[in-house]
Amino acid sequence: MTTSPDLRITERSKVKRLPMRAAYDRATVDAILDSGLLCHVGYVIDGAPYVTATCYWRHGDLVYWHGSAASRMLRTVTGGVPVCVTVSHLDGIVFARSGFHHSVNYRGVTLFGEAQKIENPAEKLAALKHFTDRLTPGRWEELRKTTDQELKGTTVCALAIDEGSAKVRTGGPVDDEPDYDLDVWAGVVPVSTVMGAPIADARLRPGIHEPDYLRRIAIGRNDLPKGTG
Q1: Count of structural domains within the chain
Q2: Which of 47, 98, 132, 182 has CA 20 to 30 A from 78's CA?
Q3: In a domain, 166, yes or no
């Protein structure tokens, strides 16, 4: 599956504050999206703004998320309203020599558009398989088959990776020149998300061993399997 080269830059997606930290190329955007699991979806209902946190995944030129068919958020965002999807990663706390110049290192992506509901059952099932395989490649084949009722009760929607921007800060503090002579510690405290050792379910039948793919993601990992396409 091919991907588009760059995000479309519009008046609402162009980074105006500290534009030197902005990026619009798909390599940067995809890397940020593929490093996360949780996004925030912004939308408006009856003139009131809402933001909902939900799990997401990328496949090719689309970002997907899913949930109950009864979800008000999913009913709204698949009804032709504009949505904003954001993904953010905190990479470090930046300690400067003044309170004013303290900062954080981060990576973030903001996408705009209209979400499309995946109606075709085969496409919906394939999208859910991509989600499961992204977390733990190989697990989908081990699971009980999804029933027609379960599939019917699940809404899957997708947003094109088309209009938006990425923004990234790296490096140490940027202080006022005279402050570099102060006797104040400055630097960066890294922040990362680490997957711990799996905890077996209390009702797991005897003799069922931890799958190899869980060992692979639990040992020293601080990121997720990459998206596809």
Answers
A1: 1
A2: 132
A3: yes
CA angle at 222 for the pair 220 and 223, rounded to the nearest 5°:
125
- CA distances from residue 98 to 26, 57, 173, 191 in whole angstroms, order as listed: 36, 39, 10, 21
The enclosing domain of 24 has a CATH number of 2.30.110.10
Q: What are phi and psi of 93, to 5 degrees?
A: -105, 125
Q: Which amino acid is at 166?
A: A
Has residue 9 been placed in a domain? no
Neighbouring C-beta atoms of residue 20, cutoff 10 Å: 7
Nearest to 106 by CA among 37, 38, 191: 191
Q: 197 is in which domain, residue-wise?
A: 19-218
Helix, strand, coil percentages, rounded to 5, for the chain: 25, 35, 40
Q: What is the pTM of this model?
A: 0.89
Q: Is 131 domain-assigned?
A: yes
Distance CA 31, CA 229 (A): 12
Measured CA to CA, the distance from residue 143 to residue 60 in angstroms comes to: 25
CA angle, residues 171, 169, 135, in degrees to nearest 5: 110
Amino acid at 88: S
Q: What is the pLDDT along the chain (229 residues), one digit of tens a residue?
A: 444 569 999 999 999 999 999 999 999 999 999 999 999 999 999 999 999 999 999 999 999 999 999 999 999 999 999 999 999 999 999 999 999 999 999 999 999 999 999 999 999 999 999 999 888 888 899 999 999 999 999 999 999 999 999 999 999 999 999 999 999 999 999 999 888 888 899 999 999 988 888 876 655 444 555 555 6
